[in-house]
């Protein structure tokens, strides 16, 4: 029995332990109380059983821990390894999150703006709906008014309502006048905002076109609220703070920040309800016409600064942006015909003003700024639907004015280059210096390239400077063609025509003036000829330069050719002619130093000093001519010899020279012989045979005739093609013979004739008569 009791007690203890293990701790109290309420000493046996169960659980926990211990250690080790990577990843995640937040600020702001606009749109739609529902109620109320017309309050209302209507009209008209005054003052700010938006649109379109590789131009379409202009009403507000520059610098003001049209809407509604809409429309249009004339009136000194033009354009754009909004936000207050009439009137005035004021401007940078302002002005108004083709036609006139200012500017540049040039070949000491020169000017000469350093390039320093400045002019001219929405072919034609003007007019004039300057000597003229030759050769590189800019092939049918070749040829011919002139002038200077003793008895056997100096000068001068083209040097040499021969002949035949002795003739003959020796020494290569000596043939035959006294041969062979004295003119021979015949002077040769043989005197008389006969025969 006792065993049975113990067994049941043990079973009960097992149940209690299982219950304790499986139930919530809140329910353990009643269970434990049952143990103490049971048999005596039962709690001791339960405590033993509980201790045994705890030890069993401890052993199981220990086994479990031992089993998972190594895995736990490995996991902790892995965690320690990835701690550094986790920290690095956390930093990257934090940075990415920060950048994402910053990048999303604009999107978030735009999203909030879209949400705000949608709420406004919904509210507006709801308001319109409710107002439409109210209209029938108002009408029904008006219908019922006649039922109370017999009451006194209704009579009072009938008496006061007309006064109230007039007061309302007056108040609304006063608000409208304030609006018109305010819009006149702030139209430049409205225009500035519209133009700024147009510029942003152009920049965006240009960027997209470049990225897409497009060449076409997209017409801008704008509205004052920064969205595409779809001719829907835009709420516009103007306040006195709209002109704050700090706000304009931070962001583009929206339409609601600029103009408040509520006075217009209110006044239009009131006059419409009161049946006087036509009066209001006429008043509004009349006032806006007056304001248009004020806006179109420029300041007197507008042409002096860019800001003057910008303010003028801003006011006009602001005026027409406001009218465009009124046109589409109201029904019939202004019509398309009215705005077109205003625009046509304004366009004629604008063109006349710009044509007048641009003519005063002589600064190419200011003209270029004006062009840019006209383009953005035209693009802005074109975006609002106004025709602007006449403005782009005006730009062609402005382009001519721009080219004129450029030509004047470059004339000064060329003049300065010529004044600072040393007119000497460019010395190059090293390979680097040579590369610097050829990088600025396309020079290629195989012979010079083979020479060792130091060496000299044939042209002077002005040549690469002129070439570089022509390219700079082309760049400057190209600036005007930008943003004109013209094809590459048209731009190419503009560049070539303006470059031709620079070459044929400006540069040509500078060269011609340079050549005529008194301080330009023979050496400088020779260098100028060399310079123009190299510039002429470089013209094809200028053609290629323009082609590379415009990508228009020079073989295109309508491509304008550069006229640089004719420019430099004309300058070279002028320089050549000036060389001949200055060379002859120098010869005349030496001739003026001649001091012949015309009555000398006989020559001293030596050539005159002045003539030897002259010949030495010619020799040194013609050595410089070796760099000239062959024909130029030969022509100069032949011209000099002919001029010298003519001058000597004129010296003999000078009317102030009354007598010449045979000794003077002999001395003169020695001088002419030196001239002939100089001619035969080939001072300039390229003459064939005695071609150069023929320049003195007239003098030679005349002197031989008098030295030999071979009158019989001369008279007998006169007129024959093979005559020994074919080049001696009877008048020349007669004039010289008359000078030698005069017997009144001392040492006259005929006095010897009379002493030795009087028959010779008769012979001379006979020769003189025959020569006079020949001269008379020639004159008849």
From TrEMBL:
The keyword Phosphoprotein does not apply. One of its GO terms (cellular component) is plasma membrane. Residues 49-137, 144-195 form the Exocyst complex component EXOC6/Sec15 N-terminal domain. Signal peptide: none annotated. One of its GO terms (biological process) is intracellular protein transport. Residues 391-739 form the Exocyst complex subunit EXOC6/Sec15 C-terminal domain. Gene3D superfamilies: Dsl1p vesicle tethering complex, Tip20p subunit, domain D (1.20.58.670), Exocyst complex subunit Sec15 C-terminal domain, N-terminal subdomain (1.10.357.30). The keyword Transport applies. It comes from the Eukaryota. Keywords: Exocytosis, Transport. Component of the exocyst complex involved in the docking of exocytic vesicles with fusion sites on the plasma membrane. Belongs to the SEC15 family. This is Exocyst complex component. It comes from Oryzias sinensis.
